[in-house]
Design a protein that fits this description.
125 residues; Ribosomal Protein S5, domain 2; globular; alpha+beta; four-stranded mixed beta sheet
Length: 125
Amino acid sequence: MKFPRSRRITRRAEFQRVRREGKSFSGKFLVLGYLRDETLEEPFKIGLITTKRIGNAVIRNRVRRRIRGIAQRIGERIRPGYWLVLIARNSAAEATSEQLEKEWKWMLHRNDLILATTPGEAREN
């Protein structure tokens, strides 16, 4: 359930670049930071941040697993050429997978980062 290394943001400088040069959008459970990169060879790169404020390691890992699962399910619908950073808020620990997925789809849709596959799906969220 791991993204290939080429699809992950791993270095601190990359996270800081998205924060400094990109835009961010906050929700109840997640904060989405994104940056357009024309030179990106992969469809998108993603980085996850779960701080110790969320809870112990078990809780943080559970939140990361849920977010990675969501990213894999809807990854092919994300617009190509973006760096995405998802920061889990404290409330993400109590959220269900469905709530996290609904919020992330809403955030992607609000920022025009998701491709609609059918005409009715664009109005889904």
